[in-house]
Amino acid sequence: MNTERLKRLQKQILANGLDGLALVPGPNMVYVSGIHSHLSERPIVLFIPADDDPAIVIPTLEAMKAEAAGIPPNRIFAWSDDEGYTGAFQQACAYLELSDYLLGVESLHMRVLELELLKRYAPGLTITHAEPIMMSLRLQKDDAELAAMEDAITVAEQAMHRLLPRIKIGMTEKQVAALLTQELLLGGAERMAFDPIVSTGPNSASPHAVPTDRPLAAGDLLVIDWGCFVNGYPSDITRTFAVGEISAELKYIYDVVKMANEEGKLIARPDVTGQDVDRAAREVIDDAGYGEYFIHRTGHGLGLEIHEPPFMMEGYTEPLGVGNVFTVEPGIYVPGLGGVRIEDDVIITPEGQRTLTTFTRDLITVG
Questions:
Q1: How does the average pLDDT of the chain come out, rounded?
Q2: Are the C-beta atoms of 116 and 322 separated by less than 8 Å?
Q3: I need a labelling partner for 124 at 20 to 30 A (CA). Which of 44, 194, 215, 255 fits?
Q4: Helix, strand, or coil here: 146?
Q5: Quick one: which of 129, 120, 138, 180 has its CA closest to 155?
Q6: Whether this model's pTM surpasses 0.90
């Protein structure tokens, strides 16, 4: 259990007028307790009371994780496959007196299964959303979180440096993606942050393209969006490459996106909003005449999840704060021609922002 995070969380629970939170396996549970598990047919719920020790309903086969996290034995409601989980939920609800609770739950993670069990055994329970409280804590990355993300960026960038000389005209998108995955895992990645996006030629006009059997050909653009987890935290980077000689229009599009990336980062600083960052990057692309081809937000927060607040988009008016980590990734996608995206990971500092990614933004020719 991260005792400092737990104290901060309980302070926020009280400040928001809640009696406690219920967390299921996922990033919020990891953030507070360090308990790594996954959603399965065996339900797990971690309870964080506002003014008492945490408690947990957990399968017996994983109970040692709760013990290692420092949860008191009398507050670990373990259950076996033979007996089932309903008894453990009934005991936990009675012990914690949840019928009198205003309980925050994770609307994006908690399933009907867990929610129905809580309501069955705590009939007076009142439910509200836990996300505002959790994200207010997770927005500001501490030194350990930042160090993990910087390590993940280093592993990802080194993998790309090793990959580039191996890319040859005639290779398929799938082959390039496989080589990149190999380089990441051999280079120290715990796992992929997501399946790498490798798209070339007309396929690169789709921002979330899936690698295909299309071979790389001279004159293509090659978009690679990749990242990995190290110490539980991810990197998320995109670079666009030229396969041999490319046309003047494609080179111009590349230069516009590069400038949009720079402008988006330049404006980022404390008290500026995600909307401001999005507008700064989008203005460059609009002025160049390609506004209709910039079809997604400029960026998203990065942390235990690949996509989390803050968001660099129109309508996101929450001010950025010191310790916020997010991507700046403008793009232009012209159907039938190709696409360009350049994505960096940045952190807000007291002075402005620092770009964590170091891989060159100059156009590299491969193949």
A1: 97
A2: no
A3: 44
A4: helix
A5: 180
A6: yes
